[in-house]
Amino acid sequence: MRITVIGTGYLGVTHAACMAELGFEVMGLDVDVEKVAALADGRVPFYEPGLQELMREQIAAGRLSFTTDYAELAAWAGDGAVHFVSVGTPQKKGEYAADMTYVDAAFESIARAIAHQGRSLVVGKSTVPVGTAARIADRLAELAPNAEVAWNPEFLREGYAVQDTLHPDRLVIGVRSEQAEADLRHLYARLLAEKVPLVVTDFPTAELVKVSANSFLAVKISFINAMAEVCEAAGADVMQLSQALSYDPRIGGRFLVPGLGFGGGCLPKDIRAFMARAGELGVDQALAFLKEVDAINMRRRARTVDLAREQCDGSLLGKRVAVWGAAFKPESDDIRDSPALNVAASIHLQGAQVTVYDPKATDNARKMFPTLSYADSALEAADQADVILHLTEWKEFRELDPAAVGGLVRSTRIIDGRNALDAAAWRAAGWTYRALGRP
Ligand code: UDX
User: Are 55 and 42 in contact (CB under 8 A)?
Assistant: First the structure.
């Protein structure tokens, strides 16, 4: 059984490399010629711990290759193959709904390429509006009658992509036949032997698991951030509140860290696409709360800008602001909908000179926000700053010596947008330490 992976973003590259690691021969496809050239050369075009090494091992072992040509891919894979589709579903411009252009084009292209082959399975991994799998299955029945569709949503987190793929919390497969289930059980045999829970279900349930999981995570984050707003008004401490809540096993402490809120290529656009789809299905009321979740999340960004202005004595004009962090979260160079960069850009627009430093995401940030300044280290960014904003919780920021940083700045004021620094240590070194939701 040969495997192909169509779409080599975060999800696709990781899935391809991990399937090769599981012992299968895998070919990845992307329409981006430059990306494919880099991947074929063993270079991963983004930062993901462990992925580059895994890719190189699998390419060297002859189990992993890449192409831009659907005909080549189909001929190589032959009958009985499993084709995964893992292209992106970004938010449509000016709308909440997901842009399905890439998904539709990928299924259309693979269907045409395998039209005259024997049996094969085409498995969707992209996060899609519920109902997509059934629609695609109808189309495939016309174009490639021997091919069957299955849906297998992916729950990997950036920064832990390899680990999450090889040791997932669960596997979910939406299938319409025993053969499709058998094929996927064979593919994931090693994971199933390790007792990874498997849920075998229908198409719409499989599609919904993914968006409801992301919605739940977004709810948890916005819940604690809403509590942070109340804490600010009441003079309470949201970190202690969160800690006390976390001891209740029904609540749990994960995704209950208050701060600047969620960003990235998944959570924000997935909850919006889910709301849009619910509207189409006539159940928009059921998801009306997600609008509030989104609003709470966006308010944290505005509040952080306000806090920076307060720390600069009421005006950002002409002030020097150091921003630590540009990625949407640590262990990633992904800046899609990054709260850190959103705040940095807003402060810049209010007349401050903003200098950003991120351990991995500086190059990406510079391309998207060329008018901000960039430094090569946290200390360089802090030079002569009127205030420092800690906006992405990289470990290296926690390891800095507050006293040493204090010698560089114009004013010892720091805002911890991630509630991750040691407040007592910074205060002991003479800093005014402020954080969201804390006195
Ligand atoms: C998410 C889901 O976790 C994953 O299962 C899905 O497949 C894709 O979307 P990812 O986007 O990689 O993964 O990031 P995640 O680790 O979930 O963090 C999302 C955002 O929430 C980040 O901006 C992070 O900083 C923020 N966050 C997370 C908080 O603000 N507080 C928390 O307690 C946890």
Answer: yes
